[in-house]
Structures are given as structure tokens and as C-alpha cells.
Amino acid sequence: MLDKQNIMNKYKRLLLSLTAVIAIVSCTKIDPEPPVPKPQPAVDTLSALELKIAKMFLVGVPGVGPALTGDMVQLVEKLQVGGIILFEKWGTEVRNVESREQVTQLAANLRKAAAGYNLIIAIDQEGGNVCRLKTQYGYLPTVTAQYIGAANNDDTTALYASRIADMVGGSNITMNCAPCVDVNVNPASPAIGKLGRSFSADPDQVAKIAGVFYDKQSARNVISVYKHFPGHGSALSDTHNGFTDVTSTWKEYELTPYKTLIAAGKCDAIMTAHVFNSNLDAQYPATLSYNIITKMLRVDMKYDGLVMTDDMSMGAITEKWTTDEAIEIAINAGVDMFTMSRGNYTSFRKLIASIAAKVKSGKIPESRINESCERIAKVARKGASK
Q1: Is 331 part of a structural domain of the chain?
Q2: What is the mean pLDDT of residues 197-218?
Q3: Do the domain assignments include residue 295?
């Protein structure tokens, strides 16, 4: 009987002990295993150097808006490119122009997106055959440069110069890649004379008419770009398509319009031609030539303003150099700003990173980047005052 009682007592004590243990465990907080963190995407932060390099690009991007596309937002807000160039079409593709109201609002939205800096909005509006803002979009008609030169009338020049200045400036566009100051050396030249893009075979008349265009565009705070240095008017072929050699056709008086306008203080920016002239540079076309851009234009002609390129996707460049190679050579030659008609955020981001690496490695002096940014900012301020 005693043994049985002892067993019962031991059993009760065991049950009490187990109950106490369970109670203690149930009151103890057990931390769960921490969740495995999800990998976070790398933050794409641009360095100060990369932001400066981005200002050296005038880029084309599809989209009629007026709401900005994703690429537009990234190019302007994140990459902070120096400018956006508007095109009517690219082949059969509608690029940026559908109506006067739409262009005006698109340009305004692009400029508004550029918080903290003056974004250049550019267009090619020479008139005549090179005309993005056409009557079908609600703009007034224009005529060719050849028509204006042949008229040889101050009132006619003023009328059409004012008209172009008004349509560009009135559409919130800050830069016109015009007037064309190529001398009409060869009326059959496929990219110039044949299209009526030259004012005259007389370089003094070219300079005089171009000066009126400069005055009218300045009155609307539109940046004028003279093109195509050092002269495309004698060319027998077209740089859009490939290598264009003007060695045997180029005339020194093709420089006269530039010299006259620079001396008069009427020069915002000059666009280079991709033409090759072995008498001026035995290795490179003008866009890539230190001899032509720095020695001739900057030193001999005493020009310290903005130098920008024609479209870097033209055959005269791409058939021999990659974009990356050509831009390195051109920066070292003295170019400030690159016209790039095609691309997107990803491609430009990669290109800018590549150029930054070349600066860090010593292939491109950072002083060249700084000089170019100062010239771009100065010109951009003119357009920003509208």
C-alpha cells in the first residue's frame, strides 16, 4: 500500500514538473528566423564627371507627347543631356511633329522636366526642302535659301527670316540648326546645291543674309547654328551616305561667311561637316580634325564659341569609326556637342560611362570636358530667356 502511495506521489510530482516546464516554455518568446533579404537592384548614380559629359549630347528620341515618354524622362531628368533635337519623321516613322500645338506643348514639357538646368530644344528649320515645321502642321509656308538669295531683296530676306524665327521661337524651341552658310560652289552638290540649301555662290551675300537670320532669331532668343564648317557646298557626294572627299573641289572662300559673322559678333554656334579634305587634314574628316577645329577655327579664325557636330550616325563617320571611337577623337579635336539622332537612355548611359572612363585613364583631358560644358551653358542661357 505504501509503495503504491509512493508511486502515486512521484507521478504527481512529475506531472507538476512537466506542467511547470510547459508553462515556462509557452511564456518564452522565440524569435523566428529572419527572412532572406531580396536582392536589390543597383542604384544607377551618375558621377559629377558623367553629368558634365551628358551635357555634351544633343539627342533625338521618338515621341510626340505632349506627355513625355519613359526615355524622354530618363534622358532629361536622370541623365540630364544637354539637349533634345526634334525631328518630323525618321523614314516613315513619325518622330516628334504632329501639329503646332503639340510641338509647342512637347517642347514646354521637356524644358519643364529639366529642373536645375537649361535644356536646349533644337530643330532643323532652314526652310524649303529642310523644313520640319510644315504648313500641314499649322505653320506658315517657307522657301529655300536659294530662293531668298536669288531674290536679293532685303524685304524678302527679312520676311522669311522673321517667319522662321517666329515659328521656331513661338514653339518653345530654343535652337535652330540654321541658317546653312555653305557657299554654292557646286549647284549639283547632292546635299546642298541640288536641294536649294545655299543662299548664293557669292560668300559675301551668304554672310549678309545669314546675318539677318541671326538677328531675327536672336530677337526671339533662338540660338542660331551655322553649318557645315569648313564648307559642304562643293561636295560631289553626301556625307549622310558615306565618305565625302572635297580635297579637289573645296575653295578657301567657303570660310568667308564664318569669318565675317565671327568678326561681327553674330555667331552662337557652328556645326561641323563630316567632309574630308587632305589639304587641311590628311587623316580625319572635319568633325574629327584637330587641325580644322582647333588650329583653323579656334586659333586662326579666333572663334571661342560652341562647336557642335552634324549627326554622328551618318555614313561618313560610321563606316570607319565606332561612335565611341569617333567621339573620343572629336572631343580631343575641339568639339563641344554631339548631335545623336538615334538612341535611348540605355545606349547613351553606356556611352557616357565609356567617355568618363577615357577621361579617368587620361585619353581625354578633363579640361576639354569643362571647356565644352562652359560653352554649352553659355549658349543654353540664350534660349532659356524666352
Answers
A1: yes
A2: 98
A3: yes
CB atoms within 10 A of CB 230: 24
Determine contact, residues 225/308, Cβ cutoff 8 Å.
yes
Of all residues in the chain, the percent with pLDDT exceeding 70 is: 88
Q: In what order do the strands lie in the sheet with 83-86?
A: 306-309, 269-272, 223-229, 175-176, 120-123, 83-86, 57-59, 338-340
Q: Where are the beta strands (DSSP E) in 48-90?
A: 57-59, 83-86, 89-90
Q: What is the DSSP letter of 245?
A: B
Global pTM value = 0.88
Distance CA 232, CA 270 (A): 13
DSSP 194: G
On whether residue 24 sits in a domain, the answer given is no
Place 250 in a pLDDT band, splitting at 50, 70 and 90. very high
Whether 162 is in a domain gets the answer yes
Beta strands in the chain (DSSP E): 57-59, 83-86, 89-90, 93-94, 120-123, 125-127, 130-131, 175-176, 223-229, 269-272, 306-309, 338-340
Strand 125-127 to 130-131 pairing: antiparallel
Instruction: Select from 101, 270, 264 the least CA-distant residue to 175.
Output: 270
What cell was used for 191? 546635299
- Number of folded domains in the chain? 1
For residue 3, name the pLDDT band (cuts at 50, 70, 90).
low
Q: Where are the alpha helices (DSSP H) in 91-234?
A: 100-113, 145-151, 154-169, 203-219
State the residue range of the domain holding 227.
52-384
Question: CA-to-CA distance for 118 and 80, rounded, in angstroms?
Answer: 10
Count of positions (residues) in the chain: 386
Q: Is the dihedral of CA 319, 323, 329, 331 positive or negative?
A: positive
The CATH code of the domain that includes 126 is: 3.20.20.300
pLDDT in tens, 119-173: 999 999 999 999 999 999 999 999 999 999 999 999 999 999 999 999 999 999 9
DSSP state of 43: P
